[in-house]
Amino acid sequence: MTWIVELLDDRVREQLDVLPADMKARFRRIVELIQSYGFDQLREPHVRHLEGSLWEMRMKGKDGISRAIYVTAKGRRVVVVRVFVKKAQKTPRREIDLALERAKEVTDDEPHAR
Fold first, then answer.
1. Which of 39, 46, 50, 58 is nearest to 103 (CA)?
2. Does residue 50 contact residue 93 with C-beta atoms inside 8 Å?
3. What is the pLDDT of residue 110?
4. How high is the pLDDT of residue 87?
5. How far is CA 81 from the centre of its chain?
6. Are 80 and 6 in contact (CB under 8 A)?
7. What local confidence, expressed as pLDDT, does residue 1 receive?
8. Which domains are delineated in the chain?
9. What share of the chain has pLDDT > 70, as a percent?
10. Average model confidence (pLDDT) for the chain?
11. Checking CA distances to 24, which of 81, 82, 84, 104 falls within 20 to 30 Å?
């Protein structure tokens, strides 16, 4: 059974839409890797565990770096809850807190870590 990658809602779609084209292309490539090889097979530099149930897709482009924070959910789903351009060395606490809050909106059982 393959993994499905979805966006939480229109807020996340809008965040993704404003990324530079090369970062969006990298996002699509990571999504393809998850769908082709499975969530369990992916590691850095593509994805990295953040905290609790949160993981991040790591996108790099000519104008900088961005992240897509996601959780996994029932039904072999990866749900992206936040997308942002990263300015600091470390993922800012406010981004993690926002992602944790949005993770509560995922409509199945509790999201789970890998």
1. 50
2. no
3. 46
4. 86
5. 7
6. yes
7. 67
8. 4-103 (3.30.2310.20)
9. 92
10. 90
11. 104
Query: Distance between CA 61 and CA 81 in Å, rounded?
Result: 21
Cα separation, 19 vs 65, in Å, equals: 10
- Cα–Cα distance for residue pair 2/7, rounded to 1 Å: 17
- Residue 66 structure tokens: 């961005």
SS3 content of the chain, % helix, strand, coil (to 5): 35, 35, 30
| CB-CB neighbours of 18 under 10 Å | 12
pLDDT digits (tens, 9 = 90+) for 17-60: 999 999 999 999 999 999 999 888 899 999 999 999 999 999 99
Please report which residue ranges of 3-72 form alpha helices under DSSP H: 10-17, 21-37
Extract the tokens encoding 86: 């990263």
pLDDT band at 108 (very low <50, low <70, confident <90, very high): low
Measured CA to CA, the distance from residue 60 to residue 74 in angstroms comes to 29
CA 85 from chain centre, in angstroms, equals: 12
Q: Which amino acid is at 92?
A: P
